[in-house]
Amino acid sequence: MIKFFRHIRQNLLSEGKTGKYLKYAIGEIILVMIGILLALQINNTNELRKQREEEAIILSGIQKDFIETRANILKTLTREEKVILNCRDLIDAIETQDYSINPDTIAFKINRGAFSWYRAEAVMGTYDALIGSGKTSFIQNQELLNALANFSSRYNAGFEDESKANDLFNLMMSASKEFLPPLSDLSTRRALGLKKKYSTNDKLLAVKQLYKNDTFLAYLIERTRWETIRSIHQKQLLHDLNKILYEFNFSELIPEKDLYKKHSGTFTNDKAYHKSIKFSYIDENLMLELPSGRIDNLVQIDSSNFHVINWNLKFKFNTDNRTDAKVLYQLNDSEPLVYKRIDD
Known about the structure:
Largest sheet: 8 strands, antiparallel, barrel
Number of domains: 2
Shape: flat
Number of helices: 11
Number of strands: 8
Oligomer: single chain
Distance between the termini: 78 Å
Strand content: 5-15%
Radius of gyration: 33 Å
Order of helices and strands: HHHHHHHHHHHEEEEEEEE
């Protein structure tokens, strides 16, 4: 082909047809440029197709990882909630010197409350690989990238002063040496193959020593506070994680744009301490407002269940019929209260 074009140029020059030669040369340049542009377009199209295919693989991995992470956090939240409630019950027992409680129940509260805690474990393999590869530009959804970055930042930071909670744990262990062996976890003792068997009297004596141990009580109260902070951090993690899964239209979550029309409004219960509670949609978040003026953020557990992030309060919405919408209000492990919508 090159020889063919060269032959044409040589004939035009030998015949003295300079004008035609120039026109031909320009035409040839244009054809070459068109060919180059077509080649670049094809190459760009192929590269873009490869990027979109890789993006789809990355997105699939991220979705799978964070669905698994969400299940982990929900399980951790449930366990951590039980830890806090067991700690609260143990504090009440010590402060009231309640000897009517079975020593085995006290032992359970110690081992599943005072000496337990659960860390939320995130599955970050796909996202970490994405950051490490420098291919974040492959992800077209900027909202998703922002949500991923926010979750990763909070998760890697941990909750405030986690070391304080760990120090208190160690101090509690030191303060429990006088009463812990008879009240230690039976399944753990069996797993360790320990031979010592403690009698009921041994356990009762241990409970008396526990009730007199003001140092342990002080550490327990403070550590329960820090475990509450850990729980708040886990709910904040879940809130950030939901922002990620909203971008995938995760079936267990209501899309943010639908939260306002589905759950906002004022609900009332004339017999409750808070006679009215209000839910509003602010900055793409469902918020709770109490008559006192306190406002707090809600985190979505599933299509109808929400937790208040900063305190142990739960809501379950029933909105099948807006005119008869109800919400169950539950503080800690108390019996839930029923509120009915009063505005429409």
